[in-house]
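Q: How would the structure tokens look for this protein?
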Amino acid sequence: MKVAVYSFHQFEKPYFDQVNDDTQQLHFFNVELSLETAPLSVGFEAVSLFVNDDASAPVLEVLHQNGVRFIALRSAGYNNVDLDKAKQLGIKVARVPAYSPYSVAEHGVALILALNRKLIRAHSRIMEQNFSLNGLTGFDMNGKTVGIMGTGKIGEVMARILHGFGCHLLAYDKFENEEIKKKYQVEYCDCTSLYQRSDIISLHLPLNDDTRYIINASSIQQMKKGVMLINTSRGALVNTNDVVQALKNGQVGYFGMDVYEEEDGLFFEDHSGEVLQDDTIARLMTFQNVLITSHQGFLTETSLSNIAKTTMYNLACFATDKVSENEIKM
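A: Here is the predicted structure in token form.
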């Protein structure tokens, strides 16, 4: 079966080389799927997509016309796919539901620690032979209250790690995880209570109509002054411009983001020789209490290996008329 792999990055190649036995004919494209690039799918039965590929209704129409009948996502999230349109067209969609919850949770904790102990600023000073400690004071994680918004696989690992630090854990989710309540003394509460009581808030929610911009000017105003916000989930959970204003007035004391609502066309690419056109992220980069990473929470050897294996498995299932357990029910 011929497969068009969109948004392919060099860091993925070694892991696909390990698991590809040439049963599926993979053709790699280092461009994102869009209306402009959808014609590249002519003659392919399947496409493989990454997090910022556009699988909206108009794009799916083109894919279908070109003969595509299967989408193999190389991600857990699927908010970039119009599932209703895919069902209407008879295009099946499968994902990688759990490549490694540890990778994302551990990256979230890394952002917390780096912001708290001002590691980036400290390293920059040392490189300039400035060994002063002034302005580098952090706080003990032990005893701090952390609000975890979303307690699926990643949120559960986050709770496990932070429990080890001695944090008091609050959680918000539609479905309570009984295991983490017992093991890590996680207390479930509503959003308002979580906002008001948390020293640190970490986002692990899916992006949908209910969660889009769940962090906004109104919710930020309910938080403790100087709160630390961490987002390793989906960029549009956060109204970034509202966070900028809250950073300016001190309501938000720290902000760590691995995802960004306008990351399409920005993250995953080298723009070092260009003028930065995004005024919002340019403003964020001026704050010393902001730490930005370019959607690298998933970027571990374990995750990349699991993504490649599961993607190839999903493709093999479709090619042999089997139903993968990773297929999204529509």
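The chain is about 35% helix and 15% strand.

The radius of gyration is 21 Å.

Upvote if useful.
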